[in-house]
Design brief:
heterodimer; A: 326 residues; mainly alpha; ABC transporter involved in vitamin B12 uptake, BtuC; two-stranded antiparallel sheet; 2 strands; B: 291 residues
Chain lengths: 326, 291
């Protein structure tokens, strides 16, 4: 029970804090644009959460995140808009199809090492982007609002709460996964591939599993993107987005569950929420980019373990000071 | 037949642009163990410097290009001194994300310094074309092809036959041993960043007359250069350069003879298939893994 208390409670607390934002907005404490930005932060955090399983445990880099996200966004737009499938059926299919494609890509490309794999997945993402452009051209599609039940359509706040709920569920599932035998196998692999192999761990199988999870989470994130922003076009699914998701992990912390949320806040939240609100500075074009880039560099140089450990380190610092003062 | 040669010539011209960018990425990869995602953006930034100088002081194109490359040289040194040198201990993924941070900073600084309006950069040679095998090749295109090949030749001579080239190769093969042997590896790394930035700028300026100087101008080149790096194999200097020319030529031919809308995805699929068959690339050496 102790175990349940500590970790699951953290995830629930994060969920509750995030879920309180729309109500704060209704009370007039924060602006509705802030809630929208947090929606972005949360669904990008979901993609990063999945990629963290792949990157943190198996050390493989995928630059295909944006491609799989985009594919899922287009699929769900088509399924709910054209075929009028129920949202959950569409969610299931739009996650399943990219995941299957991802696993096929993994089957052939996981023999590649390090950068080779990253760039092979980048090529996959480029292929899918060009296919989007060919099929749907540059026009912007409008996915319909999510209908949970007949007559119960989610507005933006409702969709936001749905995304936050899904984040909490996914954090718990990922936590379980990492503490399962599969997760332990992945941990061993990370420490030493040779040792893991000697213990009878099938490297390829576990790498493929991690790759599949990263793809599935990216696809979930893409579906949420489509129904939250309710506009889908080919422009966002580039190398830049995949790199941003990688940056989320590096800033937040490798092999952590809550890290991606912090990282996502820094990468996707700080520029619109803080920088653009400042007087004078907020009006300078490009400043958000500079700040964001500089922050990424500074965090990596001076805080390489990730921001998620900041709390622990602060605690240690305070304790040390107490000892000194005694 | 004349169309075929026309395609070959324009492929060679694009190939030179890709190859210069690719060579920059490879030099950095070999000396600092980081895939440089900022190669294109470094080129873009200094292309802006060159174009702005060209417009304000009405310099000739070649002089602006030389100044742009010099400023790129300085940019590379500054990036190495301020950032890369301090990140020696960071793991490989973190280093790559640092280059992503550099992209963001330069993407932010460029519109601040140079405005957000795309600028046009003239060709090095305005007019004139020669007839070759029934196809016409502009003097500027010929110059670009020769410049690409010439630059490549100079660099390979430098790498293969000079003392500093030897230092680069030694650092590339094993940095620690190189340092023990007295090779100034940090100077080599700094030089690598400086030269890579200059190569990126040249490739950006060669591309500039066709698409104007703007912040997104090098996105396509960056992606193609990375793919060329993998296709050629990161283990050699010449493999990726050959791959860059091959990609540009194949792209032109496939777009024209097979399909102009599905050619690009098709080419990428073919490249992927090839990489999967030969994971070490065209001329890649096998990486020996040590436990």
């Amino acid at each position: 029970m102790n175990f349940l208390k500590s970790r699951y409670l953290t995830y629930l607390l994060i969920g509750v804090v995030l879920a309180s934002l729309p109500f704060l907005n209704q009370m007039g404490v924060i602006r509705s644009a802030t809630v929208t930005t947090f929606g972005f932060i949360v669904f990008y955090a979901i993609a990063a959460l999945g990629l963290n399983v792949l990157l943190g445990y198996s050390g493989l880099i995928s630059l295909g995140t944006a491609g799989f996200m985009g594919l899922a966004a287009y699929l769900t737009t088509h399924f709910t808009g054209e075929w009028h499938l129920h949202f959950f059926a569409s969610l299931l299919l739009s996650v399943l199809i990219p995941t299957v494609i991802g696993i096929v890509v993994g089957l052939v490309s996981l023999r590649l090492e390090g950068m080779y794999l990253a760039i092979a997945t980048l090529a996959v993402a480029e292929v899918s982007r060009q296919i989007f452009i060919e099929i749907w051209s540059w026009s912007s599609l409008r996915p319909p609002a999510v209908l949970l039940l007949q007559g119960l359509a989610l507005d933006r706040d409702g969709m936001y709460l749905f995304i936050v709920g899904l984040l909490v569920v996914l954090m718990m599932l990922t936590d379980n996964f990492i503490h399962s035998p599969v997760g332990r196998a992945l941990l061993t692999m990370r420490a030493s591939e040779a040792a893991a192999q000697a213990m009878g761990i099938n490297l390829f199988k576990y790498k493929l599993m991690a790759f599949g999870i990263a793809t599935a989470y990216a696809a979930i994130s893409g579906v949420l993107y489509a129904h939250f922003i309710r506009a889908v076009d080919p422009s966002p699914w580039t190398l830049l987005l995949s790199l941003q998701i990688l940056a989320v992990i590096v800033i937040g912390g490798f092999r952590t569950i809550t890290g991606p949320i912090f990282g996502s806040f820094i990468v996707f939240g700080v520029p619109p929420l803080i920088l653009n609100q400042l007087p004078v500075i907020g009006d300078i074009p490009g400043l958000a980019f500079i700040f964001n880039g500089a922050l990424i560099i500074i965090v990596i140089l001076f805080y390489p373990r990730g921001l998620v450990y900041m709390g622990q380190d602060l605690k240690k610092l305070i304790k040390r000071k107490e000892v000194k003062s005694q | 037949m004349s169309t075929f040669f026309q395609l070959i010539f324009s492929g060679l011209e694009t190939g030179s642009i890709f190859a210069l960018a690719t060579l920059g990425i490879i030099i950095i990869f070999r000396t600092s163990r980081a895939t440089n995602f900022a190669q294109g953006v470094m080129g873009m930034f200094n292309a802006f410097v060159a174009t702005t100088l060209l417009i304000t002081y009405s310099l000739p194109a070649w002089l602006a290009a030389v100044i742009g490359m010099l400023s790129a040289f300085v940019t590379g040194i500054v990036i190495d001194l301020l950032i890369i040198r301090r990140a020696k201990k960071a793991n490989i993924v973190s280093k790559q994300i640092i280059t992503f941070g550099i992209i963001l900073v330069l993407l932010g600084v460029a519109p601040m310094m140079f405005g957000s309006v795309p600028l046009s950069f003239p060709r090095f040679i305005d007019t004139g074309a020669i007839d070759l095998m029934g196809a016409s090749l502009t003097y500027n295109g010929l110059l670009n092809i020769l410049m690409g090949l010439g630059m490549m030749g100079i660099l390979f001579y430098f790498l293969q036959y000079t003392k500093w080239g030897l230092a680069v190769r030694v650092t590339a093969s094993n940095e620690q041993t190189a340092r023990l042997m007295g090779v100034p590896t940090s100077l080599v790394t700094m030089g690598a960043w400086a030269i890579a930035a200059a190569l990126g700028t040249l490739s950006a300026l060669m591309l500039a007359p066709a698409i104007n100087v703007n912040v997104a101008m090098m996105e396509n080149v960056q992606v193609n250069a990375l793919i060329a790096g993998v296709l050629g194999g990161f283990q050699t200097f010449h493999g990726p350069v050959i791959a860059a020319y091959l990609i540009a030529l194949a792209r032109n031919l496939i777009l024209f003879y097979v399909s102009d809308s599905w050619g690009e995805p098709l080419l990428l699929m073919l490249i992927l298939l090839f990489i999967v068959m030969r994971p070490n690339g065209l001329i890649g050496k096998k990486i020996v893994k040590k436990v």
